From TrEMBL:
Short name of any one Pfam family annotated for the protein: Zn_clus
Name of the molecule in the record: Transcriptional activator Mut3p
Keywords annotated in UniProt: Coiled coil, Nucleus
Alphabetized InterPro entries for the sequence: AtrR-like, Zn2-C6_fun-type_DNA-bd_sf, Zn2Cys6_DnaBD
Gene Ontology molecular function, alphabetical: DNA-binding transcription factor activity, RNA polymerase II-specific; zinc ion binding
SMART domains per record: GAL4
Organism (species): Gibberella subglutinans (Fusarium subglutinans)
SUPFAM superfamilies on file: Zn2/Cys6 DNA-binding domain
Coiled coil: 57-91
Residue span, Zn(2)-C6 fungal-type domain: 10-40
């Protein structure tokens, strides 16, 4: 059976002149330009018979076809991903828009549902594949130790309270009292980790109201216990009165980290989405409407205010160009 003759898309004028025909009706633009009839009666030229490639040319053509197929598949995959992204964006746009200050940390955690980690078996499969392929060429990790964790790295003992070499110890000017500064800083770092896990992380338990209240009370107690272990000779007021530059620098950084934990637990800092707007609304109502209502204070607010006032005096006593406070 002879092959079916393909319909020519170009008119006779465009076909003879070998120019692209736009196919407009009743006459294409070139027929209008040349004032000719737009007909399709001319006999088509016979296509030249291509010889079948052989040898290296055939191999190259096969590789080109394989690459073209891979490119087509990649483009199809990109179109599918773009379609999914469009569907997600349209579904999110249908949700009610919330103000910038209407979303707390826990609410933001519930919105980021698309950022969950893959299952553990998929992660381990990817890690094993990396170790078996790329890591053999560029050995970055030890396969025997990468997936293992030492018990010493999980549970580390506190530094010695009375080190034999006296490392980390601070003394008053008359040597009447001493304090293990390094041990206190390590203990405060542990509390900072608890603050992050309880107040700033996006774990499911952190979004529960009752769990958060328990965490607030627990962290306040940890901060109180940590502060009570510091001798009175090294309190903020005593350090301010001593005039010792080295002690003021060291304890200025230490008490600053302590107050940062207090402010995060009380949600009274500039990064808190609800703190600054609540201050503005309280002042606006007092000025415009004359309404002075009792503000809703967080747990531990009075401690934060008292400790901040003592720290301000210590901070003023420190040189403003001190390297410890230049970030």
């Amino acid at each position: 059976m002879p092959p079916a003759q393909m319909t020519r898309k170009a008119c006779d004028v465009c076909y003879r002149k070998r120019i692209r025909c736009d196919g407009q009706k009743p006459r294409c633009s070139h027929c209008v330009l040349y004032k000719s009839d737009c007909t399709f009666q001319a006999t088509s030229r016979k296509a030249a018979i291509r010889k079948k490639a052989s040898g290296p040319t055939a191999a190259l053509q096969s590789q080109v076809q394989s690459l073209e197929t891979s490119v087509d598949e990649a483009q199809q995959r990109i179109k599918e991903l773009e379609a999914r992204l469009t569907q997600k964006s349209s579904s999110r746009s249908d949700q009610p828009q919330l103000g910038e200050h209407d979303v707390s940390y826990s609410a933001r955690a519930s919105l980021d549902l698309g950022l969950e980690l893959p299952p553990q078996h998929e992660v381990l499969s990817g890690v094993n594949k990396f170790l078996a392929t790329f890591n053999t060429i560029l050995p970055l990790f030890d396969p025997q130790r990468l997936l293992s964790r030492s018990q010493k790295d999980i549970s580390i003992d506190w530094p010695s309270a009375t080190p034999a070499d006296g490392a980390g110890m601070l003394y008053t000017a008359d040597d009447s009292s001493n304090f293990n500064f390094f041990l206190s800083r390590v203990q405060l770092a542990h509390i900072q980790g608890q603050v992050y896990e309880a107040m700033l992380s996006k774990s499911p338990t952190a979004s529960d109201v009752y769990v958060r209240l328990d965490n607030v009370a627990r962290i306040h107690q940890m901060l109180d216990d940590w502060l009570a272990r510091i001798p009175s000779e090294f309190s903020a007021s005593a350090i301010t009165e001593s005039g010792n530059t080295n002690l003021q620098r060291a304890f200025g950084v230490l008490y600053s980290s302590h107050l940062t934990c207090r402010s995060v637990v009380c949600k009274a800092h500039a990064m808190e989405a609800q703190w600054i707007p609540s201050l503005r609304d309280f002042g606006r109502k007092a000025v415009e409407q004359g309404i002075v209502a009792t503000p809703r204070l967080p747990v531990g607010w009075h401690k934060l205010v008292h400790e901040s006032r003592e720290y301000i005096e210590l901070f003023i006593a420190i040189d403003h160009k001190d390297p410890a406070f230049i970030w």
